[in-house]
C-alpha cells in the first residue's frame, strides 16, 4: 500500500485560524481545510509546509511546532496528514488553489464543513492551545 505524507498549516493571526475552501477542481471540493500539501521525497515536513504555502497562498510562513497526525485510509493508499502550528507569515495571501478563505476563532472551526482528515488537527490544537 502506498503511503503519502501531507502537511497542513494551522495559521494563527490575531487569535484566529485560517481556513481555506477547496475549489471545484479539488478532491473533496467545497470542504474547508487547513492549507498545505504533499511532502516531496527528501523534504522535511516544515520545509514542505513553507513551500506549499508559498505555492498555494503566496506567503512565507513561520512554522512553529508540530500538533498531531491524522490518517485517512483510501482504497489504494494511506494518507498521513501532519498538522503544524504557523505563528505568522509575510506577504499577502493570494488564492491559487482555493475558492475562498476565512479567519475563524479556534472554537468555531468545527462549525465549518471540514475535510474529515482536518478534524483531528483542530481537536488536538484546541487541546494544546485553548485558553
TrEMBL record:
The keyword Hydrolase applies. Its cofactor is Mg(2+). Residues 1-127 form the Nudix hydrolase domain. The keyword Kinase does not apply. CDD domains: NUDIX_MutT_NudA_like (cd03425). InterPro entries: MutT-like, Nudix_hydrolase, NUDIX_hydrolase-like_dom_sf, NUDIX_hydrolase_CS, NUDIX_hydrolase_dom. PANTHER family: 8-OXO-DGTP DIPHOSPHATASE (PTHR47707), CTP PYROPHOSPHOHYDROLASE (PTHR47707:SF2). This is NTP pyrophosphohydrolase. It comes from Rahnella variigena.
